[in-house]
Design a protein that fits this description.
- With about 190 residues, this protein is an alpha+beta fold.
- It folds into two domains: about 5-25 and about 105-185, Ribosome-recycling factor (Topoisomerase I, Chain A, domain 4); about 35-100, Gyrase A, domain 2.
- It contains four helices and six strands; from the N terminus they run H-E-E-E-E-H-E-E-H-H.
- The protein has helices spanning about 5-25, 75-85, 110-145, 150-185, and strands spanning about 40-45, 50, 55-60, 65-70, 95, 100.
- The strands form two sheets. Strands 3-4-6-5 form a four-stranded antiparallel β-sheet, with helices on one face.
- Helix 1 packs antiparallel against helix 3 (about 110-145) and helix 1 (about 5-25) runs parallel beside helix 4 (about 150-185).
- The radius of gyration is 22 Å and the shape is elongated.
- The chain starts with a helix and ends with a helix.
- Keywords: Cytoplasm, Protein biosynthesis.
Length: about 190
């Protein structure tokens, strides 16, 4: 493995960490409705737990309401029960075959809790990026130790890896700030 391979690998892994962080952010509730909020809910489908998106169509009715349209007639009650029993604090209402899930307004205390959760997720993402930096630097040091790269190459690559790390951490900070703004907007 060369230094260029190490840089390419770390860049790919950092991108994956950022994407995982973005995905985690979509699951954090804001005042607005978001169909991704229901991604974690599993419904009992003939005895086995199945993700909600595999038994129903989940979409937005308006800015504060998610609609869930079951694909089978008998699934409405099970879906409603699964949403109600989730830890999201949602109260679905059935209208024939369509299930409406209104987003209740969040209290100030709940908003603060959510911003703490966002910061915690951001810190976890930063830790993942820093761990990738450490692993890459160790790989470069091993190349130098095995006489496959010079110490000058090591210094240059460590500087490049640090720049990449700083860029990714700044991106995480921006995502955290944007999500906090979204949560705190009434």
């Amino acid at each position: 493995m060369t230094i260029a391979d190490i840089k390419k690998t770390i860049e790919t892994k950092m991108e994956q960490s950022i994407n995982a962080f973005k995905h985690n952010l979509t699951k954090i509730r804001t005042g607005r409705a978001n169909p991704a909020l229901l991604d974690t809910i599993h419904v009992d489908y003939y005895g086995s737990p199945v993700p909600l998106s595999q038994v129903a169509n989940v979409s937005l009715l308006d800015a504060r309401t998610i609609s869930v349209q079951p694909w089978e007639k008998g699934m409405g009650a099970k879906i409603e029960k699964a949403i109600r029993e989730s830890d999201l604090g949602l109260n679905p209402a059935s209208m024939g075959e369509l299930i409406r899930v209104p987003m209740p307004p969040m209290s100030e205390e709940r908003r603060r809790d959510m911003t703490k959760l966002v910061r915690s997720e951001g810190e976890n993402a930063k830790i993942a990026v820093r761990n990738l930096r450490r692993d890459a630097n160790e790989s470069v040091k091993k190349l130098v130790k095995d006489k496959l790269a010079s110490e000058d190459d090591q210094k240059r690559s460590e500087a490049d890896i640090q720049k990449l790390t700083d860029k990714r951490i700044a991106e995480i900070d921006q995502l955290v700030a944007a999500k906090e703004q979204e949560i705190l907007a009434v």
